[in-house]
Specification:
Four copies of one chain form a homotetramer. Chain A is α/β, with parallel strands linked by helices and about 325 residues long. The first copy, chain A, is built from eleven helices and 14 strands. Chains B and C meet through strand 8, strand 9, strand 10, strand 11 and strand 14 of B and strand 8, strand 9, strand 10, strand 11 and strand 14 of C.
Chain lengths: ~325, ~325, ~325, ~325
């Protein structure tokens, strides 16, 4: 008998990925919670999850252990309180509860935060860093896609003092189109995207402060650009910095990652000389990391690659949900 | 000193192609006529055509010899009368004036035709078939993309009695996404189209009656399917039929095409053994035709390929405009 | 304790798909058998299957219950005998053993068949039609990708007399590029394929006789064209025919399919009004079928869609392998 | 009467682009010089240029004013001497004559340079920087694609002292697949490239020394990564640096570019707030430049975009050829 968990926002790309993962989950069963009308999916010709009209009562009456919110930030702010009151945990995939203060939220999201108390309560969790905080939490804030790849690459190096921070860090990020969501727009139309490549945010992407907060670097040190790849899914970040004087060989950097992630089920550190590409993680919850280092000048390039819909959204959310419900962290994800 | 011609609907894909062609036209100069607000194009960093707010007075005062309408049918119906009254010719790229009767328009376009007199006046022109009718016309109806490819392939064969019509004709048509226009929709979103292929109209596409009217075949003889290719532009139609008893060799079919099109500047009949692909006509006003014939069974396959935005829309429109204005038919198009 | 089965040709696209499926199979474990050197795959950063140098002794000593051959026909002909002699069953994914006679093989494959006795022994199996023949067989010939989609669509209709065969059957087939294999060639280079669509075989594809043999139709009745879609994977066939006088409504055709396939786990018959697309079956072992019928003229269009690497190759091979080894037919495939 | 110029290597992507441009050139006429057998292009159904078997005599007898070499470096080294001796100028599109010394050639191209005297004679020309050197030259070395975009972006800033070089310069470069040439390889196969994005050279690309030589920066200051976009054509470079203390506003950087390039026909400096994308330059000889600057921290991002086959190869070669032959620099290119 599987535990039912709700999904609101199941028509979007992250929502569809949540269904896809939960369909094969050994302990959990998805329940679709219809909240707002949207464009329907194609005809259902196979088995489909149970679908209910959303209300807090429905959450309570159906004994949903948790609700996953794949909704815009303002919708997540509205829904979270009532769902928690109905006795379910919330894993929110939006940006509503990711930043540390309402001021910072206002600066980067250009809107007021309407739920400061929930913001204070929320536990932001990249499981590899914060897994101990999740079991006791009611509200888990799932990280953004770009920060997940950036923080998994940067934090171990920063902790080990491997980066000469005086020269700054460049993070040149490229994402597939699903990162922009399923709502039709000219910018994500096939004819505008195919055979094209464009930059859509330079230095001012709203995911930047998540990297700063989690990795402990200053905005002045970090140059971030978000670019649109003509692919469905995947994020590749090319990260540039000068290594500190402690680092003499590529092996030194490799060892730092192995020490940090040697036991992690979803981190794959590439052997020196090999580099990950987008396809390596497609449809999977992995973050793949590759290293290139020039000993003479200490110029360093680190690649960090994830599937934006899996480790960057739905997969990490299930990882957090597993932790929140006391299940094996990797359940349904390998 | 170039003759000014107006473009309404210049933000769409056909409109952009009209600008692109007219920018290099030796005798004509494009004037953009702003009619309804729409999503702007990117920043203008090069030379750009003159842009005016549309009104019939503006058409008259600026001495526009003609106006090209790259607008939806209902807009074309509204605009045509006043433009003609202002003294300019009209080349309409929509379906408004393509069918022979208001009843047929209503059946296939699911709306009433509001301008029956203009419909009666309009000259429908595939230049290769109707070029003699164009110079005297005020209102030229430019053919649809699918019918252009189909009619150019079928008409010579039908005229020569080369098709055994008892067995019917199958036209399996595939189009790039620009054929659906520039307005954002879920169906034309990158993530829905890439790595996909779908059928969007079977037997009931509104372009079917144009083929029937122009080629003189009956609906019961003609099976047409419209499908969406994950490419920006281009139409390829795979046409199947049984050849009539007069046809003994592939050479017989080849000769029919050469006799019909030997002097045509925009028709390229492939040597036997070679077949055109989408790329062969990309950005060009050609219609490329290839033939495969099985002598034993008389099964025949004809490929007809065009760029839907050029020979299927803007290129053919300029071809018609050249004829209407007494210019060389190929001006700006080779 | 899982049963080991060998894979030869594991570096190709079908081979990779075999590994992917067997990695999650509840009863079987893949063993890679290195037969000829080829270009290596990317760096192995996760778990990888056991890899051995191929020899018949290795097959015997490791107790392989079966060997899957994802090799060219001439290699399959060479390998099959020794593997059978070593006590393992063979499921061959090539065309080596698909046709009924060596003469037919020579006509369509343009080479002599070197193993007529094995050809006589081989059991060709689309499991939905031939599952009873598989358990007793040593050598199973896995169907071609195009014939799988065509036969699953056509056989029930032909058996029910639903097709007016005097007018012939048109099968307009489109395939993703992986159908051409992994060996580099100009025709499958990115720059040649992207934003293009081309026809590569008209009336003479080597998969045609498989359709004729399995569905019992005559070559003169069947017009088949194979075309290259700019996508990685998937086959969509648009099939045209006139329905026989027995068929009055689309519902009649729908019922024929439901009766034939109502219990089949991998066949999905779409409700009338809905049509499958390539994405619906991507990565899955389904064959999806949709119907469009015009009652007045009996023109009919049937869509049949599969993933060429799954139901068209590796998935169907595992389905056959499950049957051959007495396992549940769907094991590892849902 | 047009002046004939030869093309060797006309079957590659750069060669095809040379033909495409020369077909519309007002003063020059392409003559194809067959040098080595290669895979043929598709069927010729339109007009095609004259084709001759290459020999130095043929160059002389046909009065070719120049020969364009779209060949690998080692072929260019062999061919250049005899062509010059036959009285024609040479514009070489390969890397054979781009670097200043044979030692540097050996380090980056991993082969010995066989023509040191020609290397000494060759004039490397980005026309915007070196146009005065070209008219007197016999042998012009056409720049690499990546260095063209990088140098056009960097040189004016470096000359104006706008970059704080202590912090280094990062150039994150992305290229379409045609940059890898037309020879089939697994890395450029459709199935490997589509829905993928990969890094193929980090810090050690052979184009790096061209940037260093032309812009006068040191290798230790410059981090360059070359990445493969799933598109046919185009290069976008995202360039990161800290501006020097002289720069207070984005306007300051904008002015530097306008002063340097205000009169240049092929440089388009975007207004502040706008950024170029790949499509903006597709098929054109432009280099488009956009700027983003953060005044508080002086972090700066410059985008430089070209079509790798036009401004990055064939277009720039014709620009140089025009200069070499005393024709208007923009002839055939606008």
């Amino acid at each position: 008998m599987k535990t039912p968990v709700g999904i609101i926002g199941f028509r979007g790309y992250s929502g569809a990925e949540l269904i896809h993962i939960l369909d094969r989950h050994p302990h959990l069963e998805p329940v679709l919670l219809e909240h707002r009308e949207g464009e329907g999916a194609g005809p259902q010709v196979g088995k489909t999850p149970r679908k209910l009209a959303y209300s807090p009562e429905v959450v309570r009456e159906n004994g949903l252990a948790a609700v996953l919110l794949a909704t815009p930030p303002e919708v997540s702010m509205d829904l979270t309180g009532p769902i928690l009151a109905a006795g379910a945990k919330v894993v929110d995939l939006s940006g509503a509860f990711r930043l540390g203060t309402v001021d910072r939220y206002k600066r980067w999201y250009k809107e007021n935060h309407t739920q400061p108390e929930l913001l204070a309560e929320a536990v932001y969790s990249v499981p590899e860093f914060h897994r101990n905080l999740v079991p006791g939490a009611r509200l888990i804030s799932n990280p953004g896609c770009y920060p997940t790849a950036a923080n998994l690459a940067l934090r171990p190096l920063l902790a080990a003092g491997a980066i000469d921070r005086r020269h700054g860090i460049v993070c040149d990020a490229k994402s597939g189109v699903s990162g922009a969501g399923r709502k039709p727009s000219l910018k994500t139309s096939f004819c505008e995207v195919t055979e094209n490549f464009s930059v859509y945010s330079v230095l001012d992407h709203r995911h930047v402060p998540e990297v700063l907060e989690t990795s402990g670097i200053d905005e002045s040190e970090f140059s971030f650009t978000a670019q649109l790849l003509p692919v469905h899914r995947g994020i590749l970040e090319t990260i540039y910095f000068k290594a500190s004087s402690d680092i003499s060989t590529a092996q030194d950097l490799h060892q730092i990652y192995l020490r940090a992630y040697g036991e992690e089920p979803f981190l794959r550190i590439y052997p020196l000389g090999a580099l990950p590409d987008l396809r390596a993680v497609s449809g999977k919850n992995y973050c793949d990391i590759g290293i290139k280092f020039d000993p003479g000048t200490k110029r360093t390039v680190v690649l960090s690659v994830i599937d934006n819909l899996v480790k960057g959204a739905a997969g990490q959310a299930i990882q957090n949900l597993n932790l929140a419900l006391g299940l094996p962290e990797t359940a349904g994800l390998l």
